[in-house]
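Hi team, as promised in this morning's meeting, here are the two structures we talked about. I've kept the exact order from the run log so nobody has to guess. The first one is mostly here for context; it's the second one we should focus on when we meet again. Sequence first, then the predicted structure tokens.
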Amino acid sequence: FLFVLIGFLSYLFFIKPLWKKAEHGNESKIIFNETFDDNVLGWTTYTNNDATKSISEGKYIISNKVTGADRWGAVPIKGLPLNFNIKLKCNFISGSEKDKFGIILMQNIYNGYRFNITKNGYGGVSLIKDSIWHDIIIPISGFKKSETEPFYQLLIEVRGERFHFFVNDILVGDGFINEVKLNEIGVYVTDIQTIEFDDLKISQVDI
């Protein structure tokens, strides 16, 4: 028992912290870069009684007005390398502090991944496969943005079939990213919230 306890404490205090900060790696080539200064890529924009999606002042803004509904915007991607990073800046404007927003990677509307954060500081990752949702990383607390941080910086480090997900360079968790094809990238909002998104980027990483 003593050896097990020593091993666990060694992992907790010495090994685990090595994974707490994002490494970013050698980002050799930018393969997708959306600054939202225009809408050349064709992001969905509209306004109705249920939601508003707009591009304004270099931001993609989704305002969801219906409880329990999801809103997203996505565009095609292709030719992803084996190792890459995805980065996104997002800012909570108003609404529910307990509901999710973040990055989506989709095969289609029935299959994909969601990498999420909430205003009250919970981060997690979920998979939808054949229209059924699964938690890859059950939402965990500890990622509430400080007053000095201007936005949430989401980072997904993909190395082969594995990913590490970070919020403001702090590790949320890791897992496999081999369940569905990655045909589209985008952003999403759940429940009644208004969120700004900016600087969505995919970079090749050389190892």
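And here is the second protein, the one for discussion:
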Amino acid sequence: VDEANATIANFGSANELKTLSISNLDDDSSGDIQIGTIGNASAADELTSINISTSGDAASAETGGGTVVTVGAITATRATTGDAITDITVNLAGEYGASSIGAISGSADIGAVSVTTDANGTSLTMGAITPTAGSITGDVTINASTDFTGTSTATGWIQTEASGSVGNISLTSGGNMAISTTNAHEFIGGATTVGNISFNTLAAADSI
């Protein structure tokens, strides 16, 4: 995607999808990206990598509202013997508007989760990450320089298989970070082993 907007409808039958890479090439951060749900009819059971990024370097309010990224829920249901998703990477650089990524559900193991957002943006909301047929074998790193919201199910924003595991979790907030704030919702569900959890705010007014 360059300066123009890109709108793509639902990708219902995603059973042959191997990698998902979504990005723009516009330094002015002016093109929006909107993609519907993925795998809601036939699950993306061969998906092994998810990368969602913007490459802009515009400062806040320099070009208007900035790129808005909207991606629907990704259904990646597979057997426990299915291929792992090696990485989920989100990197919103430059100026971006209020963006959202739906839940990523049903996979076997996930290697690592990395989310980075630029201070020139507005906010990012992400749905639950639920490898219910596996674990998160690597680390979960959220470096959000603006507001970040993680919307959850009752069993967690992160949910593994029963007796699963999650690596180290690092949360850094440059705004308001709110994950699994619904009453009685868990932050991590299913897992019985979790690595170190660290919290960091960038300024006195920031929160987690």
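Starting points for discussion:
The first strand starts at residue 6 and ends at 8.
The chain has a mean pLDDT of 92.
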